[in-house]
Amino acid sequence: MTEKELFTVVGIRPEPPAPKKKVKRLKGFPWISGILLALILLCCLFAELLMTKEPGYLDLQNFNVAPNGEFLFGTDTLGRDIFSGIWYGGRISLTIGFLATLISTLIAVVYGSVSGIAPGWLDALMMRFTEIFLSIPGLLMVLFLQAILGQANVLSLSVVIGVTGWASIAKVVRTEVRQIRNSEYVVASKCMGGKFPHILRKHLAPNFIASIMFMVVMNVRGAIGSESTLSFMGMGLPLEIISWGSMLSLSEKALLTDSWWIIIIPGAFLVTLLMCLTNIGNYLRKSANRKESNL
Amino acid sequence: MSEILLDVQHLTHVFRLDKHAVIKAVDDVSFQMKKGEILGLVGESGSGKSTVARCIMNVYKPTGGKILYRDIDIGDKAQLRKHRKMLESLRQIIFQDSTSSLNQRMTVADIIAEPMSIHRMRPARGSLRAEAEFQLSYVGMDASYLDKYPTELSGGQRQRVAIARALSMEPELLVADEPIASLDVSIQAQIINLLRHCNREHGCSILFIAHDLSMVEYLCDRVGVMYRGRLVEIAPTAELYANPRHPYTKALLSAIPIPDPIAERSRKRIDFDEVSFDRDGVLTRIAADHFVLMQEEV
Ligand SMILES: Nc1ncnc2c1ncn2[C@@H]1O[C@H](COP(=O)(O)OP(=O)(O)OP(=O)(O)O)[C@@H](O)[C@H]1O
Ligand SMILES: [Mg+2]
Q1: 3-state DSSP helix/strand/coil percent for chain A, to nearest 5?
Q2: Could you tell me which residues are beta bridge partners of residue A75?
Q3: Is residue A254 a contact partner of residue A63, using CB atoms and an 8 Å limit?
Q4: pTM above 0.95, yes or no
C-alpha cells in the first residue's frame, strides 16, 4: 500500500483527470513590430560587430558625404560615420529609455503600493500630490532638473527622465492595490501569516503587472522620445556623446547644406523604434483587458 | 477530550458604517469549544456567523469581549505577538466563497503550498509541489490539476483546493465558513465526509458554519444557533434537534424537509415572530450542556 492509498478518505469520489490545456497563442501580436524591435535591439547590443568605423572619430576630410560604399549612411557635418553611429548611439538611446523606465517603475510600484494600503487620509494626500505632479508638463520638469544638475550625461539624464515619469503608473498601481487589498485571498494570506513583502510579491504584483505593462512600454517610448527632444534642442546629451537625439541635433546645419541623410536616417530609426514600442504597448493593453473580461 | 481549545467570552463586534450608522453584527456571544470537537454554528444570512469566524481568526478586532485560544488572549497585542507564528499555523480558515479566496493568478500547486512556503516549512515529501500533490489527492483530485488556475476549475473543485490549502498545515482548529453552501448535494456529502475524516483521524477541531441544518445534524457534536448577532441557543446536536427551546430554533428546525413524503405533508412549519425577539436575554442553562437565551428571572 502506498502512502497515498493509506490516506484516501472513505467515500470520496476522485475527480477525473483534468483535460490537457490548450496551447495559448499570442493572438493579435504585432509580429512586424516585434521583429523590427528585436532586430534593432540586437544590432545595438552587438554594435561592435557591425560598426565599420570608429563612431566618434571626426574624419575631417569626409564630412557631409552622401551615403556610398564606404560610408553606408553617409557622414555628418563633423565627419562622423552615421552607419556606425546609428548602432552605437542607439545603444545609448535605448539605455536611457530602459534605465529611466526602470527608475520610474520602481518609484511607481513602491509609491502606488504604499498609497494603496495606506489609510484613507494618507492615500488621499499622496494621490493629490501625484495629481499636482501630473499637471506640471514633464518636459518642463526635466529641463528644470537638468538645469540644476548641470551638464547632462547618460546617467543623469536617465535619472531626470525617470523621476519625472512615475506618476501615472503609480496611480494605476494604487488603484489595483486598493481593489485587491481587501479581497478574500489577501485576507486568507494574512491569516496564514503572510507579511507585506510576501503579499506584494505573490498577490499584488502579479495583478497589477498586467495592467501596468502597457504603461511601462509606453514609458520606454516616452523616455527615448524625451532624450531625443532634449538633445535635439541642445539641452540633453552633448554632441560628443552619440545618441539618436544628439545626432538629430545636427539637423539644423544639415538643412543648410542639403544633407538629407543626416536628418532622415536617425529620424527614421527613431520613428520606427517608437512605432514598434507603441504597437507592442497597444497589444499588451488589449490583452490585459481581454484577460480581465475573461474572469 | 474535555480540554478547552477555544473560549469565546462576550464577543461583540460593531461595524461602523459612518458617523451615525452602526451595525451590531455580533452581540455578546459566548461559547466554548473542546479539543477534538465539531461545533456547528447556524443561523440565517446576516446573523453574524462569518463575523464570529473572522474575529476568531484575528481578521477583525473585536469591539468587545475576549477570545482565548488555549489560554492565549488573542485580542491582547503582547500575547498575540508572542504566539503569532504558532497561532497562524494552528488555526486555519476556509472562506465562504472559494472563488474570491483563491488568487486567480496562482496555480493550484502554488495556492496549496502558500501556507507552507510562508512558514518556510521543510516539506516532508521532498518538495512543495509533491506536498501539494499529496494534499490534492487527499481531497480526491489528482496531479493533473496542479498546474490549473482556479478559473479552470468547477466550484466544487475550487472548494476542495481551499480545503486542501487549509489542511496542508495540519491545523488544530479549522474554521469552515459555509464550505458547502455553493455545492451540489453529492459533493456536499463528500466534503462533509472529508471534514469528518480530518476530525476523527487527525483530531482536528472544527467550527462548522452553515445554514443547512441536515448536514449540521450529521456532522456536528454540538450546535449553536445565531439570530441577529446573538447566540440564542447552544446544545449537543441530538438534544437540540429533539428538544429545541428557543422559538427561533423551533422555527428553524421546523423548516427542515423530511425525506418521507407522508410525514413531509403533515409537517407543520412554525413561523418565528421577529417582533417578539428579545435581544436582552441571558444565556441560561436549562439542562446539562443546553443553554438558551432567556429573560432573566428576577
Ligand atoms: N465589513 C463589513 N462592514 C460593514 N458591515 C458588515 C461587514 N461585514 C458584515 N457586515 C454586516 O454584519 C452583519 C453580519 O454579517 P455576517 O457576514 O457575519 O453574516 P453571516 O451570518 O455570515 O451571513 P451569511 O450567512 O450570509 O454569510 C450583516 O448585517 C452584515 O451586513
Ligand atoms: Mg457568512
Answers
A1: 70, 0, 30
A2: A81
A3: no
A4: no
Sign of the alpha-carbon dihedral angle for A110, A111, A114, A115: negative
Residue B76: is it exposed, middle or buried by C-beta count within 10 angstroms (0-12/13-18/19+)?
A: middle
Residue B277: inside a domain: no
Interface test with A, best of B84, B94, B102, B103 (most A CBs within 10 A): B103
Q: Which helix (H) or strand (E) holds B156?
A: helix B155-167
CATH at residue B138 = 3.40.50.300
pLDDT at A294 over 50: no
Give A27 to chain B, closest Cα distance, Å. 20
Residue A137: in which H helix or E strand, if any?
A: none
- Give percent of chain A with pLDDT exceeding 70: 89
Is residue B233 one of the residues assigned to a domain? no
Contact A295 B151 (CB under 8 A): yes
Residue B234 DSSP SS3: strand
| Cα-to-chain-centroid distance, residue A28 | 21
Separation of alpha carbons A94 and A224, rounded Å: 7
- Domain count across chain B: 1
Q: Which residues surround ligand 2, an ion (CB under 5 A)?
A: B 50, 96
Cα Rg for chain B, rounded, in angstroms? 20
